[in-house]
Design a protein that fits this description.
Layout: H1 3-21, H2 43-55, H3 62-75, E1 79-83, H4 86-96, E2 112-116, H5 121-129, E3 133-137, H6 151-154, E4 159-165, H7 174-184, E5 187-191, E6 199-200, E7 203-204, E8 211-215, E9 228-232, H8 235-245, H9 293-303, H10 306-324, E10 331-332, E11 340-341, E12 346-351, H11 359-367, E13 393-394, H12 399-407, E14 408-412, H13 419-434
Parallel strand pairs: 2-3, 2-4, 3-13, 4-5, 5-8
Antiparallel strand pairs: 1-9, 6-7, 6-11, 8-9, 10-12, 12-14
Helix pairs in contact: 1-2, 2-9, 3-9, 4-5, 4-8, 10-13
Length: about 450
């Protein structure tokens, strides 16, 4: 048999292996886990993964090139650059704005970046890691997005950029943010890791700012296991992001390629001698944040499922919303931002101040029935030990951010939740709420304001 014959046989056996290895199991309420998120895949992902491994091209390759092209097409963007995680994507996006190639617009140490403290740490960490200063604004309750009414109060002579996430798939007020950015000549980075497929005024989020970022961790809309991407329409930013991702090199050849520029030995940059090999000229102090082609191979198969995944998330979110609407005296239910069509990452709720139970009570009730819950990531980043002594500024006391830290939680809406699991989740919530939490039969923690720490969702980026 030829190599092609053997490959075809291996891939057919891989399909059979998938069917045998991952049969659909029965759901037993209260015993079978109801995750907040997870990988949803079929034989195509496994076949692609094996197909890539048979190439034994262990770095970025043909599947990565295919994914970048198709992902950019889906987003109606010019450039998509893969990397090894959504957190790395955030690091690359912010670091790109410090490049000398941007001239006088580049961000320099001490410049300020407007953001929020209610979110995932790696939206903010790259600001600090680049010796920039995060300026924290409060968020709105219900949408859990940046309070745009505070934007002007955040401005100083050092304000140079704004970087915020579309919280749990719900777009922030892009009209207000983009108008503010234009008026003050600011860069905008959209952390779109939790919001792939969301729309604002009919346009996909991620296409408004100078740069946007994506995560392909298993919790997200599509997965590569690990993986992320930076997207832009700006050619200079594209080149800079790739440079920081690929060791800081000035060369833009794909791995395994030479002389794409046509003058590999014809450059003279820095204080190097004329004709120094362009493949080993470095224009940035960079990293190696590439991903493997095997990860990208999984992503290619996932990308074909993305529209149905987005629709399933919206459908599941609506099912929970409709079923919980009558309990708004106890729970503040999520609200879509005006003029938006979210691509929901989760169903978020906040225990009302007058509720006869606290967050810990309802979360414990759900978790004991194997229904996974998560808080809104860090809750309030400024309360965490990592940020004690960090150089940041905040506007006001961030009361809503603190309330989220104390009283907010969310449950899953991901496509792996079938009707039986959703029905069980809803019936369990309704059972608890219909008795004001008394059904728990346990000592209460003292109302909505119980001092529960803000535990983070495991590895969402």
């Amino acid at each position: 048999m030829t190599g092609d014959d053997l490959r075809a046989k291996i891939l057919e056996l891989t399909r059979q292996y998938y069917a045998a290895q991952w049969p659909k199991g029965a759901f037993v309420p209260g015993q079978t886990a109801v995750p907040y998120a997870g990988r949803v895949f079929d034989a195509e992902e496994v076949v692609n993964l094996v197909d890539s491994s048979l190439d034994f091209w262990l770095t970025t390759g043909r599947f990565a090139a295919q994914f970048e092209k198709e992902f950019a097409t889906f987003l109606k963007a010019r450039y998509a650059m893969l990397c090894n995680s959504g957190s790395s994507a955030n690091l690359l996006a912010v670091t790109a704005l410090t490049s000398a190639k941007l001239g006088e617009k580049r961000l320099v140490p001490g410049d300020e970046v407007v953001t929020v403290a209610a979110g995932f740490p790696t939206t903010v960490n790259p600001i600090l890691q680049n010796n920039l200063v995060p300026v924290f604004l409060d968020v709105e309750m219900g949408t859990y997005n940046i309070d745009v009414n505070q934007l002007e109060a955040a401005v100083s002579k050092r304000t140079r950029a704004i970087m915020v996430a579309h919280t749990l798939g719900n777009p922030f007020n892009l009209a207000a943010v983009m108008e503010f950015a234009k008026r003050h000549d600011l860069f905008v980075v959209e952390d779109n890791c939790d919001a792939l497929g969301a729309r604002y005024n009919g346009q996909l989020t991620g296409g408004f700012g100078n740069l946007s970022t994506y995560s392909f961790y298993p919790a997200h809309h599509i997965t590569m296991g690990e993986g992320g991407a930076v997207v832009t329409n700006d050619r200079t930013l594209k080149t800079v992001v790739e440079s920081f991702r690929d060791w800081g090199r000035d060369c833009w050849c794909d791995p395994g390629k030479d002389n794409t520029c046509g003058k590999r030995f014809g450059w003279q940059l820095g204080d190097l001698p004329p004709g120094y090999d362009h493949k080993f000229i470095y224009s940035h102090i960079g990293y190696n944040l590439k991903l493997t082609d095997m990860q990208a191979a999984v992503g290619v198969a996932q990308l074909g499922k993305l529209p149905e995944f987005i629709e399933a998330r919206r459908r599941n979110w609506q099912f929970l919303y409709d079923g919980l609407k009558e309990f708004e005296e106890f729970l503040l239910l999520p609200q879509a931002t005006a003029n938006s069509q979210p691509s929901w990452f989760g169903f978020i709720m906040t225990v009302q101040p007058t509720a006869p139970f606290g967050r810990r009570d309802i979360v414990t009730y759900l978790e004991r029935r194997k229904i996974a819950t998560r808080q809104l990531f860090a809750g309030n980043l400024t309360r965490h030990p990592a940020y004690v002594g960090a150089n940041y500024r905040q506007v006001g006391e961030l009361p809503n951010t603190d309330r989220i830290m104390r009283d907010t939680f969310w449950v899953g809406v991901y496509p792996g939740l079938d009707e039986a699991r959703l029905e069980f989740m809803l019936s369990t919530l309704r059972e608890f709420l219909s008795t004001g939490g008394k059904v728990a039969g346990e000592a209460k923690t003292g109302g909505a304001g119980d001092a529960v720490g803000a535990s983070s969702s495991a590895g969402c980026h």
